[in-house]
Amino acid sequence: MRSFSDWQPRYAEAGVATFPVRDKRPAVRGYLKIGLGASKQLATKFPTANTFGLACKRSGITVVDIDTPDERLLADALSEFGSTPFIVRSGSGNWQAWYRHSGEGRHVRPDPERPIDILGDGFVVAPPSIGSKGRYTLVEGSLDDLGHLPPMRRPVAPLGAITAATASEPRVEVGRRNQELWRACMARSRDCRDVTELMRSAIEMNQSMFYEPLPDEEVLRVVASAWSREASGQNWFGSGGKVVVDAAEVDDLLTHDPDAFALLMILRRHHAGARSSFAVANAMHATMPGGGWSRQRFSAARRRLIGLAAIEEVRAASHFHGPGLYRFKARRKGVSI
């Protein structure tokens, strides 16, 4: 039995409504609200469809989607999220672990360092569908297990961002769709072999992340932007924090005033993107590179940064107010020494 019409009643027996999928997209509207009755009608309307899916939240299912065929990462995920009797392998050889839904939302790459998505909303393709890369295979378990799945163990850091406080977050509203899809594409592009693979992934994320998906032409623009960053080596998503340094700062400031350069880099390291002021207290002198600086050396470097207009004083230090407050001035193309 290969078609949707064959498997729809079997999933229905397990209390799960399914619907046809075409090109990684649901073939019908309102798929997140489809019940068993509507699912049965769809089986007669799309009898030969060989790909079908289910709505995670409505079906009471959360899927840990492991976007790699590496069995070691599957083992790590099961150790972190808990064991489950229902393990699926996608047509591309990647893994899924299915759990009972416990309020989890949909989180694409919550930890940018690992190719794992938490799918507690949106939809997933169900086995034994036949996708563009092959059949979705139920490696462990049976449909009888769907009514007795264990809950997903709450993850620990760095996936700890998925907590009870955020598990029920609504999907992204209209005004933020471009930005959120772009961020998701930037995180996903590091694992894609080419822009075509990223596009396929973006199409799926567009359908699952938003109640009202973006138009195809907008998805294309987002993918083009993200892949351009990836191809040019400017994609820093998932590779840790960065301190941006202008070439002129290396050529001029580092060469002529290494103390001022070191202090500027440390301030950017801890306050990059700060919209408010920050303290540059004299006590910092003991933590500077090389085992600490003298207080006079530290104060001189700070004065030179002010003189170079790299930072500006917002409030002078005083016994009443405490350390002086500073903020970054607008970045310039070069630093005059």
Secondary structure elements and their pairing?
Elements: H1 4-13, E1 18-22, E2 25-26, H2 36-45, E3 52-55, H3 56-59, E4 61-66, H4 71-81, E5 87-89, E6 95-100, E7 106-107, E8 116-119, E9 123-125, E10 130-131, E11 134-135, E12 137-140, H5 177-189, H6 195-209, H7 216-231, H8 247-256, H9 258-271, E13 278-279, H10 295-307, E14 311-315, E15 325-328
Antiparallel strand pairs: 1-2, 1-3, 3-9, 4-6, 4-8, 5-6, 5-12, 7-8, 10-11, 13-15, 14-15
Helix pairs in contact: 1-2, 5-6, 5-7, 6-7, 8-9, 9-10
How much β-strand is present in the residues? 15-25%
Shape: elongated
**H/E series, N to C?**
HEEHEHEHEEEEEEEEHHHHHEHEE
What is the makeup of the main sheet?
6 strands, antiparallel
Tally of DSSP helical segments: 10
Structural class: alpha+beta
Helix content: 25-40%
C-alpha Rg, in Å? Answer: 26 Å
How many DSSP E strands? 15
Number of discrete domains: 2
- Kindly, what is the distance between the CA atoms of the first and last residues, rounded to a whole number of angstroms? 76 Å
Strand order of the largest sheet: 7-8-4-6-5-12
Point out poorly predicted stretches.
156-170, 333-337
**Mean pLDDT level:** 83
Task: Describe this structure in a few short sentences.
The chain has 337 residues and is an alpha+beta fold. The chain contains 10 helices and 15 strands.
Question: How would you describe this structure to a colleague?
Answer:
The chain has 2 domains: 4-169, no CATH class; 247-328. A hairpin with a 2-residue loop joins strand 1 and strand 2 (25-26). It starts with a helix and ends in a 9-residue tail after the last strand. It is elongated, with a radius of gyration of 26 Å. It has helices at residues 4-13, 36-45, 56-59, 71-81, 177-189, 195-209, 216-231, 247-256, 258-271, 295-307; strands spanning 18-22, 25-26, 52-55, 61-66, 87-89, 95-100, 106-107, 116-119, 123-125, 130-131, 134-135, 137-140, 278-279, 311-315, 325-328. The protein is of the alpha+beta class. Residues 156-170 and 333-337 have low confidence and may be disordered.
